Amino acid sequence: MTAGSDAVQDLLPLVFAAPNEALTKAESVLRHRPEPLHASVAHQVIGIWQRDFGDLRLALRHLRRARNWAARAGSADREADVLATLGVALVHSGRTRQGLDALGQGVRRGTGHTRARVLFRRAYCWWVLGHHKEALEDVRRAVPVLRQAGDVIWTARALTLRATVHLALGAVERAEADFASAEDLWAVTDQEHDKADAVESRGLAAFRSGDVPAALRLLDEAEERYAKLGTPTFMLSIRRCEVLMAAGLAAEALAEADTAIAELDSIGGQSTRKAELLLAAARAARQADDPATATARAGLAVRLFAGQRRTWWEAHARLVLLGARHAAGKASRRLVADAAAVAERLTGLGAPTAPEAYLLAGRIALDLGRTADAEPYLAVAARSRRGGPPLARMTGWAAQALRARAAGSTRGVLEACRRGLAVLDDHRMTLGASELRARATAQGAELAALAQQAALRSGGPRRLLVWSERWRATVLSAPPTRPPADPALLSHMTAYREIAARAEETRMEGRPVPALEREQRRLERAIRSRTLHMRGEAHDDDTRFDVGRLLDQLGDVVRLVELAVVDGRVQVLLCGQGRVRRFEAGRLTAAETEADHVQAGLRRLAHPGAQARLPLVEAAGRRLEELLLGPAAAHLGDGPVVIVPPGRLHRVPWALLPSLRERVVSVSPSASSWLRARETRPPWGGRKVLVRGPGLATGGAEVTRLAARYSGATVLEHRDASVPRVLAELDGAGLAHIAAHGTFRTDGPMFSSLRMADGPLIVHDFERLGRSPYRIILSCCDTARFATVGADELLGLVTALLPLGTAGVVACSAPVNDEAVVPLMLALHEGLAQGLPLPEALRDARAAMPDDALHRATGWAFTAFGAA
């Protein structure tokens, strides 16, 4: 590049508009033996690129050369500008004192417009260091000068920085006003990198105002803009981690932070960003119940922040470190004192997170039995319940609940828990994606546990039932937000289906499919990303649980057994005959272990020749009954039984338990869900739909037989069994039977699927239905498997159907023998033809099977859900 002075000066704004182009042109300038002024600009441009996107050591080398060339050129303003850029790089490298000295020199040497730009960059460094008062003061001095000079770009940058500082201090409305003003200015520039940063900042503001879907959408948009420019996105990763944690996606936040740290290390990037990423990783690990990782990441972050003289950040890292140590089981008077000291420091810094630190100090003191010491800390933390973002208010209500428990006030505990969970309800309903709604409930797990403990201590089984229901299967209480008619989303889903089908065919041919699997994962990420952007829809339904209404519906014959887990032990709440009784059973962990043994046994019994294992599986069923029902098993009466298990026990084959083996048994995620299913009316006309997917060992033999039974049924098989056609026919049907291979995805439950002719029919597809079938039978392996997320929520095929109008489902919790399934399904439909509900028809179908291990195991593997 050999253009004149103006062209070389234009490289400085270009580095934020088109960074890679600016780098290339700056390197070209240096190859042509430029004059000192031009050499200074070129080295500064290369230094900025390396500082923000590359190796910080190279950045410092180029910026020092830029300073030297500026001195030779004899331009004080040029030297001041370079000193400001050098100061930012030194601060990012952890050399805080040197960086502030360089910035101070820049302020003193610069004049007018240039000095205002230097002040902006010093303000930026004050923000990085956590000195928010100083940052606001420097911006206050810079903005009028930049505006008067007509400097649109730097005025927009200054307003964006001021907004970001306001957000750090919790002043969301001020931040949003500054972001809006900055965005108006960016609209008339070609600064593409700054525009991407503005979108990212709007995402942060949306998050701070409580709009998680908008935050995710804006951060994704910013990432797309950065990708077009070819620039790394470390600050974006930090902000996305924060949003992901608020959405209950802590494991994903940890993975994102660790990936960014590795990438930053590989290029010798900014030490300040590494410290912030370590803090994000520590917070995510703490939320993901991984205190060892949280301790390691937070400890390193504390050391880096201390070395960088970043008091604000160091205090936040120490809070996470102390919380991780407490989560690992450590409690001492020293830990209380440390938490209190961090709380006082955060208060002095004006940090919105100070209540979290006071709550931690109070919790540790309570663990030590030092109630009097805990009270003042909890009292300060409880003040945050009155205002601020939802999660901050929940911190306050948790503190208030702990105060009430320490004072022995059951009423106070329950009131605080009720108020806190109501805040979380409001937050959850802003989320459109059922996955996010489910995962967000984790934020209320402590309040729900405190309420259940208080209800158990108060001795009333009805009260314990109400609180067990209060936070059980809440995601199913309202239909999910329908995915938008988004052309990009529909295109991604079609492409995903095609790629998944091609991958399956290639695997069956025995050939590797790495390229197809990579493309499938990419499309899964794109589909999930767009669904997470959906905002929630308000629902006017009164979802309060009424014990009297439940008992009226149960009558004198039906029993509902709700299993509540309090302090790790199963509490059996037996409902029926107008009353609720409580029995104590075994430990949840022991029941989970036994359930795993049963599942392993059923998998073996699905193959011929495993008859010898039948007594072992039946013995495991007896042990499960003792652990799960205990003395309640003797009080079940003779009528139908509805089981409402906690999420971690939904894979239990309930028909295997001796006291349930000959009974009519159904399972429901909650008593409220069972009531809704019981009161759901079948659609007019009662259309019947029979679907046969490809690749079944029996060829889906029962579908052919059922087609003869139901002469007017719609039969979809071969090419007709495509996902669009199947969804169209399922919508509003009275009865659907799907014979297809089922796949449960532990790594992505919303991509659990049924195999159709053109690829997988996934959970996201079901959520597009206007109304799911009133009754649906899934004669497929693993269709009754779920992922347990959040407080006690379930994600899977069955739970996608229940809020959409399905009142009854028959599905399978284990791999089964295809040939043994056929007679079971035919017998099941025989019962339906006689007018029986699904649970009773399934009971009779089991009884009609041959009395051998293969057929008995097949019958046990299927469960009836709901009440139809």
TrEMBL record:
Gene3D superfamilies: Tetratricopeptide repeat domain. Residues 619-866 form the CHAT domain. This is CHAT domain-containing protein. The lineage of its organism: Bacteria, Bacillati, Actinomycetota, Actinomycetes, Kitasatosporales.
